[in-house]
Amino acid sequence: MLSVGYQYGVRPLLFSLDPEAAHHFAIATCRRISESPILQAIAKSTFYYSDSRLSQTLWNLKFENPVGLAAGFDKNAEAIGAWEHLGFGFAEVGTITAHAQSGNPQPRLFRLPSDRAVLNRMGFNNRGAAATAIDLQNYLQSHKLSIPLGLNLGKSKITEIADAKLDYAESLRSLYDFGDYFVVNVSSPNTPNLRDLQATDQLCAILAELNPINNANKPILVKIAPDLNDADIVEVVKASQSYGVAGIIATNTTISRQNLTTTHLTMTGRPVTEEAGGISGQPVRDRSLQVINLIWKTTQGSLPIIGVGGIFTAEDAWQKITAGAAIVQVYTGLIYEGPMIVKQILQGLVAKLEAHGLDNIQQAIGLSHK
Fold first, then answer.
1. E-strand spans in the chain?
2. Alpha helices in 72-181 (DSSP H)
3. pLDDT tens digits for 28-66?
4. For residue range 217-235, what is the model confidence (pLDDT) as tens digits?
5. Dist CA 113 CA 11 (whole Å)
6. pLDDT for residue 8
7. Among candidate residues 356, 299, 345, 290, the one with its CA nearest the CA of residue 323
8. What's this model's pTM, rounded to 2 decimal places?
9. What residues have CB less than 8 Å from 52, skipping those under 6 apart?
10. Are the C-beta atoms of residues 113 and 103 closer than 8 Å to each other?
11. Mean pLDDT score, 117-122
């Protein structure tokens, strides 16, 4: 009933707003939940779903369920106290850069409803690592999170590619005490030349710079693009393994414009093929699944994967998990399906476990390869 209410009531109102304005409204609402025990209780009674069969331990962290919030939604870690009450098993915030930056010029966020997709060229707009660290410290001094918190790190636009490793290191040092895991984001298409950092020599230089900072041996993951060819993905995975990376996030947004129903962006009137930015949602679903399968085969299931890209239903999540993802993330699905999406996916995953005679979600990881 709540899902129907969102589809026919709330979503049309949100979609009547400029996409970035709608996003600010959503974050402001979640920030109020984060700060209010009463709103937290209401949210939890509405959206939370628990089943012990969905819990697992990964990187010595307890995940009550495998569905998390992807980076990009809570860029400045403003609403970290809301996500557990909305049913998420973990949350990843950011992308955070060493230097505060305003991001790319507006408009920079677009809906593609006929494709169930979003095109964004936000450009890592955030308050910077130092300011975010202060906010996290202040919040966590008086609040305890019950779900793992990931911090997604990117390169500042003003930093030269040659100095990227120092930029990531500065962010990690500033934020180290506040994240349960960290992500090296070298795959956003919205910072010039950032994807060049997926080259093995560049990536290895970053990881080599970060490892000495990681005194507590917290999980550090690498987030890759869906647009790499398979051979390059294998090289990235092998390079990451050689530096002890804890996992791979597959995948970021795509710069591909193939097989889109949308031809022009309403806000600009320009062909979507001429608009910069990365596309998330349904158009990236199949390629993300292919990448997860490839990583699983390459590592023989030894390297944990976070699957993200086009997850709208329990079936979407199940496909990614059985392909090899230990846990998954949603973002665009949250925009189109509303906050009931997590509960619906979790209920569907329990039904999948029962249908396959499995006792725990861990038994489903990589099941399609067995």
1. 56-58, 61-63, 67-69, 90-96, 109-112, 117-120, 149-153, 181-185, 220-224, 247-250, 278-281, 305-308, 327-330
2. 129-142, 164-175
3. 999 999 999 999 999 999 999 999 999 999 999 999 999
4. 999 999 999 999 999 899 9
5. 11
6. 67
7. 290
8. 0.95
9. none
10. no
11. 96
* 272's tokens: 């979507």
Residue percentage of the chain with pLDDT more than 90:
89
DSSP codes of every residue in 284-305: HHHHHHHHHHHHHHHHTT-S-E
pLDDT at 21: 94
| Residues 247, 251: Cα–Cα separation, whole Å | 12
| Helix (H) or strand (E) segment spanning residue 40 | helix 37-47
Q: Output b/e per residue, 91-115; b: 16+ Cβ within 10 A.
A: bbbbbbbbbbbebbeeebbbbbeeb
- The pLDDT tens digits of the residues spanning 6-31 come to 776 788 888 888 999 999 999 999 99
Q: Which amino acid is at 91?
A: A
Edge-to-edge strand list for the sheet holding 278-281: 109-112, 117-120, 278-281
DSSP reduced 3-state for 334: helix
Q: Active site includes 188?
A: yes
188, 240, 280, 288: which is the annotated catalytic residue?
188
What lies within 8 Å, CB to CB, of 192 at 6+ separation is 157
The b-or-e profile of 216-225 (16+ CB within 10 A means b, else e) is: eebbbbbbbb
Which positions ≥6 away from 20 have C-beta within 8 Å? Answer: 106, 107, 108, 109
The answer to whether the CB of 91 falls within 8 A of the CB of 147 is yes
Q: What is the DSSP string of 210-268?
A: HGGG-TT---EEEEE-TTS-HHHHHHHHHHHHHTT--EEEE---B---TT-S--B-TTT
Rounded to an integer, what distance in angstroms lies between the CA atom of residue 66 and that of residue 45? 19
Mean pLDDT of 263-285: 94
